[in-house]
Amino acid sequence: MNSPIIQLLQPSEIVNLSLFLEQLPTEVTQWYQPHSFTVRDLQFFYNNTPGSIGFISIEPLTGKIIGYAALLTGGNRYDIARWQQYQYSFHPTTVASYAPVIAPAYQGIGLAKKMFDVIIAHFNRHTTVRKLLLWGGVKADNEKAIRFYEKIGFANKHSFEYQGLNYDLMY
User: Fold this and answer.
1) pLDDT of 1
2) I want to staple 169 with a disulfide (CB 3.0 to 4.6 A). Which of 65, 72, 99, 154 is the partner?
């Protein structure tokens, strides 16, 4: 495989992003549903949500999106509320919620780590964000994801119940 292109999501890529997300198999989407992936909803999110930013990974030979990460500077309000219950306090300019997904055929080859490194470099160069919260936490039985997050430096800080046991992780 040629080295994937990792870049900020551009408005012109929203249709391709929607196709990528809607074609993911249930074994992937089960971990972060229920979120709508229609073009209209993605456009609404990126056009009307202050602090929203997306990164995509593109397979250079096909031009298809193979990875995506949604971020929200200031943090998702539900994440922030949970962390406040744990006695954490964040300034909105120093925290972001982070939600990645990689196409199954590209998992386990280092793509998610490469995307994460690009995102961290972007935040370090262009923002004051220094803490990432895993958006919505991670399902406790998603062992593969937990291993990945811990490997790249996330720490399991707390647990909460929402449709089963979940962990709140912070980088």
Assistant:
1) 65
2) 154
The reported pTM is: 0.93
Q: What is the 3-state secondary structure (H, E, C) of the chain?
A: CCCCEEEECCHHHHHHHHHHHHCCCHHHHCCCCCCCCCHHHHHHHHHHCCCEEEEEEECCCCCCEEEEEEEEECCCHHHHHHHHHCCCCCCCCCEEEEEEEECHHHCCCCHHHHHHHHHHHHHHHHCCCCEEEECCCEECCCHHHHHHHHHCCCEEEEEEECCCEEEEEEC
Q: Point out which residues pair with 70 in neighbouring strands.
A: 54, 99
Q: What is the phi-psi region of residue 108: left when phi exceeds 0, alpha when psi lies from -120 to 50, beta otherwise?
A: left
Quote the CA–CA distance of 164 and 141 in Å, as a whole number.
9
**Share of residues in the chain with pLDDT > 90 (%):** 89
Q: Are 72 and 50 in contact (CB under 8 A)?
A: no
CA-based R_g, the chain, Å: 15
